[in-house]
Input
Amino acid sequence: QVQLVESGGGLVQPGGSLRLSCTASGSIFRIYGMGWYRQAPGKQRELVAFITSGDITNYADSVKGRFTSSRDNAKNTVYLQMNSLKPEDTAVYYCNADITTATMFRLGYWGQGTQVTVSS
Output
């Protein structure tokens, strides 16, 4: 079994920063791309940032220049550094990872989500 666990969410004032972490654990053979998505109330889930196994990153236009994704392959962990946060960044943030398990099944896995609230 594979699990993704996010952490680092919380309440922050506009202009503030947060760092999210997502760690994969379990019977993992290899992790490919890892992504961060978010879902605000009444809206569809959207891709925020994506990082390949070779550390190539891609960002939604709404967060370019403010968010940075990185990963530590030795720790099976992906990070999302969020700076200059805006109220419109308020959402539940989910981690997603493309993983081949030890039994050689390749699947996409989701974390449980972490709430980010940007408010004064």
